C-alpha cells in the first residue's frame, strides 16, 4: 500500500462539477483496493481502481484472468467473499452515496433492486432444485412482497420480455431443461426483474456459442437502451467489446492501465499491454506469419513486480519502469494510460501499422 | 527427435481419409431390461481428407460432433459405421497390436490443460509415459534425456522435469500436453480446442509454438476449435460442421471470404469483430435486409437435439432460405452445380440446395 500512496494523488478522479445533477455518474468507483489474505500471503487483487458509469452507458472492463476485473465487480455488488477478501481502501459511490459505508440491510435493498449482476455460468448460478418461475418470482416476493400467484405472473411476463418461447409452459421447468442460451436469458430476466439502474455482466456470453452469443448480446443491448441502464461488461473478448462498449477500461494486475473511448483505443492504444493484446489477434493480412505474442505470463498477485507490473513482459521497459509505479497519465480529456512512455506508444502506433 | 520425416510420402498426399463416418450413441430405457429407444446421432456421415503437412481446421458450435470426430479418429470411440483410412488401412476395425502401432502415429492434444494432466505424476513421468507403452521408441536409459529434449522443444526449462502440473500456469501446462503428444514422433496430431482455455495473451504463444513444431517435424494437424479467427490463422483448409454433418469444406479463403452455405455465413457474421467501426457498417447493412446486405445474420432458436435431428437438411429449422425441398431431400456435400467449373473461390464443397454467395463488402 505504501508505494501506491504517491500515485493516488495523480490518479485522483476527474474533478466533478459541484452538485452537477446531469453530470453525476451513476456509479463512481474511487481508488478501490481489495486484497485476499491467504496462507501464502496477501494477494493484492485490486490496487487502486477508478471508473465511472453514467446512465445508458456501457463500460467494458477488459482483462485476463487474475487481472482483478471480477473482484472489482464483486466489491461493487457487495458479494465479495470476506474473509479471505477485504476492501482496504476506496469508495464505491452509487447515486451519490458510498456503498461501502452502508449497513448490510441497506445494501441488500440496493442489491437486486437498484443494481444487479449477470454471471458467466448460468447453470451453476441458478438453483437446480427450484423451477425457473420460482427463482424469477422470488425477486418480486422478497423485494416487493408480492404473493406467489402475482410473482408467477410477473415471472411469465419477464420471460416473454427476454423472448423465451412458450413462457407460460416453461415457467414450471427447471434450469437443466433449458439450453445454454435460454438459461442466460433467464439470468438476464432475473437481473432485469426490478428494473435496476445498473447491471454488471460478468462474462455473460463466454460460455455460449457464437450464434447464441450474438442473440444474447443483442437482447442485452436492446434492454439497456429501453431502460437507459448503466452497463458494466466484464470480458476478455476484444470482439465483444468493440461491438457494444462506449468506453473501455483495460485492467492488468489489479490496476486500470488504460481507459479510453472505444474508437480511440482500437485505433491507437496508449499502453503497451493494450497494444500487445490487439496485436495478438490473428489478422487476415498477416496469415502465415507468426502471431504477435506478449512474452511471459501474467504476474502472480502475491508477488507483483516492483515498478510497473507489466515491465517484465513489456517490449518498451526501461529502468524507470522497474522502479517507479507509473501514475495514470491523462492522455486527453477522455483517455488515460498508466505507462511512463504512453506518448511513445501512441506515436509508435500511428507510424508502422497503418491499416485502414 | 531428429528422424522427423518418416516414410517417403510426398507433401500433399492424403495421409488420413475419412469416409462416411458415423457415430450413434444409443439411448436406452429401463434398468434391468434395457431396450434402445433411439440414438444421439453425434456424427452422421462425415467425409474428408487430411493431407500430409497441412492443418485442417474443424469449426462448429458445441454439440455439433466435432469432438466426437476427434475421438473416432483416435479410435477412442468405436465408429458405428464408416471408415478411416490411415495410409490406406482402415483403422476403425483394428484392435490390439495393430491399433497400438497406428496410435503411435496419431496423437492428441486435449482442451483442458487442468484436467488432462495427472496431478500426481511429475512432468517427466507424464511426458515419458508414452515410452512405457511404446518402448521401442526410446530405450530405457535414454528416456530422461528424451523427456528433457521434449521440454526444450516446447519452450519449457528442461530442469522442470521433476515438477508437478500444479506448479505450472495454464499455458505452460498446455505445452506439457503438446510435449506428450510429440513424444512418439507422430505424423498426425489431433488438437481438440487446444487454446480455448487459455488467456488471450498466452493463446498466441501456444499457436506460434504449434506452427513452429509443424514446420520442424512435418506434422499434420486436425485443429478443432470454435474460435474462428484462430482457426483461420492456423488452417490450410477448414471444415464447418453442423449437427453431425459437414456443412461446407474448403480452403481458408474459400470458407471465410466466399462461404456459400447459409450456416457458415451466419456463423461468420455472428463473430464479433475487434474493430468498433464494424459496428456502424453492420448497422448500415442491417437496414438493407439481413440476408442481402453485409449486416449480421442473427439465427433464431437453438441447435436442435442430435437425438431427433430435422429431416433433410439439418440446418433448415434455422435457415432463412429453407423451402420444401430442404425438408425432403438431404443436401450432399459437393461442389454446388451453379459454381461447378466456374473457377471462382465459391467452387468448393457445400451441402446446401440453394448455395450462393452473400454480397461481400467488395461487391457492394
TrEMBL record, chain A:
Protein location: Cell membrane
Gene3D superfamilies membership: P-loop containing nucleotide triphosphate hydrolases
Listed transmembrane segments: none
GO molecular function, one term: ATP hydrolysis activity
Region (Disordered): 1-25
GO-annotated biological processes: peptide transport
Domain ABC transporter residues, every copy: 29-278
One GO CC annotation: plasma membrane
Keyword ATP-binding attached: yes
SUPFAM superfamilies: P-loop containing nucleoside triphosphate hydrolases
Family that this chain belongs to: Belongs to the ABC transporter superfamily.
PANTHER family per record: DIPEPTIDE TRANSPORT ATP-BINDING PROTEIN DPPD (PTHR43297:SF2), OLIGOPEPTIDE TRANSPORT ATP-BINDING PROTEIN APPD (PTHR43297)
Name listed for the protein in its UniProt record: Oligopeptide transport system ATP-binding protein
Organism of origin: Actinacidiphila guanduensis
Upper lineage: Bacteria, Bacillati, Actinomycetota, Actinomycetes, Kitasatosporales
TrEMBL record, chain B:
Biological processes per GO annotation: peptide transport; transmembrane transport
Tagged with keyword Nucleotide-binding: yes
One Gene Ontology MF term: ATP hydrolysis activity
Superkingdom in the source lineage: Bacteria
Span of domain ABC transporter: 16-268
Keywords annotated in UniProt: ATP-binding, Nucleotide-binding, Transport
Family: Belongs to the ABC transporter superfamily.
NCBIfam families: oligo_HPY, PRK11308.1
Stated name of the protein: Oligopeptide transport system ATP-binding protein
Lineage: Bacteria, Bacillati, Actinomycetota, Actinomycetes, Kitasatosporales
Amino acid at each position: 500500500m505504501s508505494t501506491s500512496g504517491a500515485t493516488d494523488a495523480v490518479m485522483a478522479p476527474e474533478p466533478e462539477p459541484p452538485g452537477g445533477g446531469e453530470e453525476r455518474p451513476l456509479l463512481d468507483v474511487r481508488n478501490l483496493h481489495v486484497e485476499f489474505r491467504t496462507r501464502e500471503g496477501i494477494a493484492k487483487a485490486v490496487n487502486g481502481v477508478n471508473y465511472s458509469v453514467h446512465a445508458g452507458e456501457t463500460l467494458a472492463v477488459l482483462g485476463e484472468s487474475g487481472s482483478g476485473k471480477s473482484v472489482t465487480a464483486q466489491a461493487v455488488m457487495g458479494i465479495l467473499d470476506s474473509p479471505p477478501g477485504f476492501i482496504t481502501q476506496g469508495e464505491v459511490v452509487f447515486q451519490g452515496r458510498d456503498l461501502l459505508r452502508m449497513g448490510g440491510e441497506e445494501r441488500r435493498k440496493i442489491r437486486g433492486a437498484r443494481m444487479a449482476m449477470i454471471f458467466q455460468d448460468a447453470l451453476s448460478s441458478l438453483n437446480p432444485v427450484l423451477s425457473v418461475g420460482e427463482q424469477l418470482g422470488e425477486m418480486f416476493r422478497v423485494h416487493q412482497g408480492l404473493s406467489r400467484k402475482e410473482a408467477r405472473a410477473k415471472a411469465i411476463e419477464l420471460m416473454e420480455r427476454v423472448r423465451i418461447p412458450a413462457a407460460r409452459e416453461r415457467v414450471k421447468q427447471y434450469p437443466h431443461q433449458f439450453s445454454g442460451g435460454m438459461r442466460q436469458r433467464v439470468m438476464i430476466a432475473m437481473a432485469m426483474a426490478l428494473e435496476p439502474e445498473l447491471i454488471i455482466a460478468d462474462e455473460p456470453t463466454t460460455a455460449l456459442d457464437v450464434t447464441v452469443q450474438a442473440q444474447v448480446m443483442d437482447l442485452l443491448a436492446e434492454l439497456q437502451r429501453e431502460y437507459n441502464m448503466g452497463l458494466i461488461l466484464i470480458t476478455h473478448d476484444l470482439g465483444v467489446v468493440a461491438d457494444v462498449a462506449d468506453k473501455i477500461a483495460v485492467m492488468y494486475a489489479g490496476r486500470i492501465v488504460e481507459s479510453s473511448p472505444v474508437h480511440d483505443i482500437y485505433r491507437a492504444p496508449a499502453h503497451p499491454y493494450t497494444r500487445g493484446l490487439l496485436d495478438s489477434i490473428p489478422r487476415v493480412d498477416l496469415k502465415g506469419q507468426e502471431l504477435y505474442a506478449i512474452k511471459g505470463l501474467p504476474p502472480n498477485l502475491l508477488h507483483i513486480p516492483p515498478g510497473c507490473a507489466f515491465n517484465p513482459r513489456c517490449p518498451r521497459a526501461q529502468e524507470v519502469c522497474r522502479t517507479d509505479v507509473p501514475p495514470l497519465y491523462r492522455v486527453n480529456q477522455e483517455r488515460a494510460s498508466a505507462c511512463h512512455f504512453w506518448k511513445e506508444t501512441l506515436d509508435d502506433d500511428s507510424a508502422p501499422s497503418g491499416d485502414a | 527427435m531428429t528422424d522427423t520425416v518418416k516414410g517417403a510420402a510426398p507433401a500433399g498426399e492424403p495421409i488420413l481419409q475419412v469416409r462416411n463416418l458415423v457415430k450413434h450413441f444409443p439411448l436406452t430405457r429401463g434398468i434391468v431390461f434395457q431396450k434402445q429407444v433411439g440414438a444421439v446421432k453425434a456424427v452422421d456421415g462425415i467425409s474428408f481428407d487430411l493431407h500430409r503437412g497441412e492443418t485442417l481446421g474443424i469449426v462448429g458450435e458445441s454439440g455439433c460432433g466435432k469432438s466426437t470426430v476427434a475421438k473416432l479418429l483416435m479410435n477412442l470411440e468405436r465408429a458405428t459405421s464408416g471408415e478411416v483410412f490411415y495410409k490406406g488401412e482402415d483403422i476403425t476395425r483394428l484392435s490390439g497390436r495393430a491399433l497400438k502401432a497406428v496410435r503411435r502415429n496419431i496423437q492428441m492434444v486435449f482442451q483442458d490443460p487442468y484436467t488432462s494432466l495427472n496431478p500426481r505424476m511429475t512432468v517427466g513421468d507424464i511426458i515419458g509415459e508414452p515410452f512405457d507403452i511404446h518402448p521401442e521408441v526410446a530405450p530405457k536409459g535414454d528416456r530422461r534425456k528424451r523427456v528433457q529434449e521434449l521440454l526444450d522443444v516446447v519452450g519449457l526449462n528442461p530442469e522442470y522435469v521433476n515438477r508437478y502440473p500444479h506448479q505450472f500456469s495454464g499455458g505452460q501446462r498446455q505445452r506439457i500436453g503438446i510435449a506428450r503428444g510429440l513424444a512418439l514422433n507422430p505424423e498426425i496430431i489431433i488438437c481438440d480446442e487446444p487454446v480455448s482455455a487459455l488467456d488471450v495473451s498466452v493463446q498466441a504463444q501456444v499457436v506460434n509454438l504449434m506452427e513452429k513444431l509443424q514446420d520442424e517435424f512435418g506434422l499434420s494437424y486436425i485443429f478443432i476449435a470454435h474460435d474462428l479467427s484462430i482457426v483461420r490463422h492456423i488452417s490450410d483448409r477448414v471444415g464447418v460442421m453442423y449437427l453431425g454433418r459437414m456443412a461446407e469444406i474448403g480452403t481458408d479463403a474459400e470458407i471465410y471470404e466466399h462461404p456459400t452455405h447459409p450456416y457458415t455465413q451466419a456463423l461468420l457474421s455472428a463473430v464479433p469483430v475487434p474493430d468498433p467501426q464494424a459496428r456502424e457498417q453492420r448497422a448500415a447493412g442491417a437496414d438493407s435486409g439481413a440476408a442481402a446486405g453485409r449486416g449480421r445474420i442473427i439465427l433464431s432458436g437453438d441447435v436442435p437435439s442430435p437425438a431427433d435431428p430435422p429431416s433433410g437438411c439439418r440446418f433448415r429449422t434455422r435457415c432463412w432460405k429453407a423451402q420444401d425441398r430442404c425438408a425432403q431431400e438431404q443436401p450432399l456435400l459437393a461442389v454446388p452445380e451453379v459454381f461447378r467449373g466456374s473457377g471462382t473461390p465459391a467452387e468448393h464443397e457445400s451441402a446446401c440446395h440453394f448455395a450462393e454467395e452473400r454480397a461481400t463488402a467488395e461487391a457492394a
